[in-house]
Design brief:
Elements (H helix, E strand, L loop, with lengths): L1 H9 L7 E3 L19 E4 L12 E6 L3 E10 L3 H16 L4 E3 L9 E14 L6 E13 L4 E13 L5 H26 L1
Parallel strand pairs: 1-4, 2-5, 2-6, 3-6
Antiparallel strand pairs: 3-4, 6-7, 7-8
Helix pairs in contact: 2-3
């Protein structure tokens, strides 16, 4: 009789966990059969901080304090989602004839390396304002000569409409859309 009472007293209702997905609406430029239109590009695994490998949603306060949202998480780790989005963006540009996964056994002409420099929601002092920054660096490597063909960084800063996880996710989606559209324009214009 005492045992159920003890366990019942120790538990308190937990808030429902809300899962979020990114939803960028990307409009990609397309190439007109350029010099790489018959070439194979392998999209390497993305280089990112450990935070982006998890379902936890992190934010930064006052530029120095990092926290995780207690009742919100990613439905899919951002790193997995971002890799799929980069692959899709590269394929849709039609700059290359074939776009391959990193573990493909097919020999590629090029390797596209991507680094996530920033993918964060920030809160300013007193939590009165929030914004997100998305910054991705792309390096195209000639896999035969082991040389860098091109390297470029694209960034976007977007204000957050509501000072919470949902507002952060919506702003991250917009910022990611802007970065991938800039990258697609660069690829089409330079290759």
């Amino acid at each position: 009789m005492v045992l159920p009472l003890l366990f019942g007293a120790c538990s308190s209702p937990q808030p429902a966990l809300q899962e979020y997905i990114l939803s960028p609406k990307i409009s990609v430029m397309q190439s007109k059969r350029g010099k790489y239109s018959t070439k194979i590009v392998k999209v390497a695994n993305i280089d990112a901080s450990d935070d982006l490998h998890s379902h936890s949603m992190f934010y930064v306060e006052d530029g120095i304090k990092k926290f995780a949202y207690a009742s919100s998480e990613w439905a899919e780790p951002p790193l997995q989602f971002l890799h799929k989005e980069v692959m899709q963006m590269v394929a849709q540009t039609k700059v290359f004839g074939f776009v391959q996964l990193p573990n493909s056994k097919v020999e590629s002409d090029f390797i596209l390396e991507t680094r996530i420099n920033d993918f964060t929601q920030y809160f300013e002092a007193n939590d009165t304002k929030s914004y997100v920054i998305v910054s991705l660096s792309f390096t195209l490597v000639n896999s035969k000569k082991h040389t860098i063909v091109a390297s470029q960084t694209f960034s976007s800063k977007v204000d957050v409409a509501s000072l919470d996880a949902e507002g952060g996710v919506k702003a991250l989606s917009v910022a990611l859309q802007e970065v991938l559209e800039k990258a697609s324009s660069y690829f089409v214009g330079h290759f």
